[in-house]
């Protein structure tokens, strides 16, 4: 099943989207919003699946053309956004570029930060940033959405709480990161916006590509029409999603609608390219001593997508332009 | 005006509470939940204020006795919880106890971490923790709730976005903190639960004690009936609330219902005691070389309160017991 939220008020309007992303139908009679559907997933999920089957069979008279540009984030605001850094090879590369050792514990203890769950934006929304000097970058990631997860759940139990899967662009302001990490309190100003693919999909939709813990397909990230990378999201993911969820639920429960992110997808050796410019720059520094690829400028366009074995987009595309934000007069 | 959420479903049921906290009346006809009231504050606030005036005048026939034990957190789940560490004197003390210098920038650049906004619990809810070895502590703080804050707002503009004020207990697992801070990604497992006072109050409710930026009254924290501290929340707050909000909104907007915390209230010299056990222990270490006050045990009771000039509670009391949580079978 594929679900999206059309722009409407603060929480969007839930629609069921056909497998080929061509048609959609309102899910209002089942649940007005994706959050309310997740709040009561045991009863809403079968009804949504039935509507999805009708839609794919061409049996929904109220179906309409699906427009990704009309989408908000599937959860336009959520209660919890925990982003991992599960591809430790990426972290190792970043450290290597600045001549720092990777602590051995990074291979066994997941890195996770709490992100801004009230700052989720749609797949075609502008990325508003006040200053290019902040070092504007994208990060292409895989995310999962959980239902309620009891505190202290093991990875084995956590696996059964994954309800939806999608992609995000975790916008990062690279030049604000060193000072924030130096304070040890985590990212804050340096992680302003997170945008989502038009649709999220249930695990059954992904066939063999989803093994219950990792998504085994290339994640494609492009800048101004040029492919920057397409590393396989199923490779080199040191901590799989059940492990990340169990880590997040160690000392407290997670509420339905919790978004858990993989962190920038990255493969050892980066032969298929990178999912963020920071990694491209690190590779340049390691190879030549200096980074030549700049961060994003106003007007730059980032696209993030994942194709199935037939080359068809699964979640629809994130397609955003960086724009110059003017803050209010003091 | 004073507002509370009675336990009901995931988001509680909004009630208006009388100034003396004795009576309450349903606000369902204006707004079913506090979040929905904040989403549309310009129109809901006058209606809620009118109901509050009626309630205080004894003119609400549907009013009932207010029971703080029936309260959820005012926002049982919120979209954003940003907790500052605004009393830098506290941070300095903690560093001093472990023989570390305080970076000079800590006096000019606010420390803020993103907290678990889906893990808000009620004033009388148990503090469920799996292990005493995690070092269970309370932190008494002042919080404000904002409406929508545009990105890049100055402190002057941010001041006008403060809609509600209350107190929280930011439960901290001290023995999990060093490893998490060492990873630089901020607190996660070490900050499991945040509980709130029964009511939040609008700024006008606080008279001269609220100057638009700081709350000038002692914040009282007790453990098992013994006062641990009552430092003045208006003193030694290096970064006031408008400054914290502007810091949080530097690179993106904040959504209505954002909770901004002061961090543990602390006064220079700690003559009025402390608002967390970690500070008590740091003072012991500085004085004698070793901490003798233990962290909390199962069965321990923490109370947090703030009294007005007449000795009457303003927000009602946080009154919680630490309980031994049993995780699900693996």
UniProtKB/TrEMBL annotation, chains A, B:
Fumarylacetoacetase-like C-terminal domain mapped to chain residues: 80-318
GO molecular function: hydrolase activity
Domain Fumarylacetoacetase N-terminal positions: 1-77
Keywords: Hydrolase
Transmembrane segments: none
SUPFAM superfamilies per the UniProt record, alphabetical: FAH (SSF56529)
UniProt keyword Cell membrane present: no
Keyword 4Fe-4S recorded: no
InterPro entries in alphabetical order: FAA_hydro_N, Fumarylacetoacetase-like_C, Fumarylacetoacetase_C_sf
Listed name of the protein: FAA hydrolase family protein
Species of origin: Halioglobus maricola
Lineage: Bacteria, Pseudomonadati, Pseudomonadota, Gammaproteobacteria, Cellvibrionales
